[in-house]
Fold this sequence. Notes:
Blueprint: E1 4-14, E2 23-30, E3 33-38, E4 44-50, E5 55-58, E6 60-62, H1 70-73, H2 78-81, E7 85-90, H3 124-134, E8 139-142, E9 144-145, H4 146-153, H5 163-178, E10 183-187, H6 191-194, H7 198-208, E11 214-218, H8 226-240, E12 244-246, H9 260-270, E13 276-280, E14 286-289, E15 301-306, H10 317-324, H11 328-335, E16 338-342, H12 347-355, E17 359-361, H13 375-390, H14 396-401, H15 405-410, E18 427-430, E19 451-456, E20 459-463, E21 466-467
Helix pairs in contact: 4-5, 5-7, 7-8, 8-9, 10-11
Amino acid sequence: MSLKYDLIIKNAAVIDGTGAKTYNADVAILDDKITAIGSLNEFESRRLIDASGFVLAPGFIDVHTHDDTNVIRTPNMLSKISQGVTSVIVGNCGISASPVTLGGDPPDPMNLLGGRQDFIYPTFKHYVAAVEQVQPRVNVAALVGHTALRSNHLKDIFQPASESEIAVMSEQLNQAMSQGALGLSSGLAYASAKQAPMAEVKALVKELAKHNGIYSTHMRTEFDAIIDAMNEAFETAEYGKVPLIISHLKCAGAGNWGRTTETLTLLEEKSKTQKVACDCYPYSASSSTLDLKQVTSDFDIYITWSDSEPDMAGKLLAEIAELWNLSLIDAAKRLQPAGAVYHGLHPDDVKRVLKYKHTMIGSDGLPNDPHPHPRLWGTFPRVLGFYSREEALFELPEAVHKMTGLSASEYHLANRGEIQIGNYADLVLFNAKTIRDKATFEDPIQKSLGIEKVWVNGQLSYHKGQITETRHGRFLRRVQQ
Length: 481
Ligand SMILES: [Zn+2]
């Protein structure tokens, strides 16, 4: 008997996303699903690909992105599809494109997502409809930002929310959750959310439980008081009885280097009694808006953009300060609003966090930055090429698990992240010997090497460095329970 498939990928080295060892098999696709795995010699298909010498893995899931408005404005998403990414999770760090109604310009750091004209989704439903209408090249799932809710409803964003403001934020969060949001994110380190006491966040997180939601947090600090900040995150999630995801776990600041031994021990301890995980990008430099509190002479701070002094983009803060004959902090003030890359992490800390069993890979890339941190274009191939192949930090199946199966499971993305019969055919074919990130701090907008083909929902979407004609991404709503 011969069965007709749309596509058979033959002789692939399959890494299935579960963390299990590589095995050789043929994988068949019909419509948008994986429909057979094994030796499929006697079967017919409309198309056949010989994948000898290549690894076939589930499409990568970028769990930490700020692609909220970009999936609509630049739907080809070349920065992500060229890395083998087939799904992005937006709405991280307390900032989301929806539900948002602005009274003026977006407050820092919502300005990372775009300008006033880009915030045109007063409800989550509007955002979903816009994504579905444009159909980006990658799948999209979304968190609701705490800072976005504050910006919608607080008289003064630099104050704690009042009882009545918490009530309207809760109502709006509930509405977004019922329209398919994955959960709530916070960005408590930023001035626009810093005044929110734990009680304010707890009240919102409590609303998530009935929706099977997730709480993800860019913690109050990643510097000296990081343990306090972690304990706040654990307590907040525990109060709502929801899973916790700590965003871009790191130990920032020279005085803090080496302390991931401490933070990971705490995380491991907590993981025995509550559901916790974290994400991490594979670089020892961070990036965000230029934060006066982070200005230091301990390490290089590179200015990526400045609205008030655009000519200074591309220079080190120290150079600019010297040029203007100002202190670092006064130069930073004059550059506001601005973006920066901070070379303030220790490579050993990055390795330790990447290796940790509950760590997922997330790029935290900033797509609207004219000179972005290279993580935007390089994160996933860098984990596979540099950290797995060259540094031997982990075997390839473990590296792939951190960007596929683990991610789908933590974020409740149904039928994705693993090569299994019946799952959606989000797939990437890559060369394990040559896969490598090319984006650098000097030259960050560069496609990675070694990504051969990428399929999204069963359709070829990227091939040998080029996007295909059509796009096939979908909006991924939270799974109802
Ligand atoms: Zn963040």
